[in-house]
Design a protein that fits this description.
single chain; mainly alpha; 3 helices; elongated
């Protein structure tokens, strides 16, 4: 029982770490883009709401 729980905790921690790494990579990419490109992404009807969901706005650039 303990080993099963330990394995589940380790799997969860790996998933959280992978998600954190993806988020940091996305922020690095967005930070490297020229402000005009980010502005265009924010205007996109699919991408804009996703970026705004995570607090990325035109004022950030």
């Amino acid at each position: 029982m303990k080993e099963e729980l330990r394995a589940r905790i380790i799997a969860y921690n790996r998933a959280v770490a992978a998600n954190r790494e993806k988020a940091e990579d996305l922020m690095t990419i967005l930070g490297a883009l020229p402000p005009g490109q980010v502005k265009n992404l924010l205007k996109d009807e699919t991408i804009g709401p996703i970026l705004e969901k995570y607090g990325i706005t035109e004022e950030d650039k």
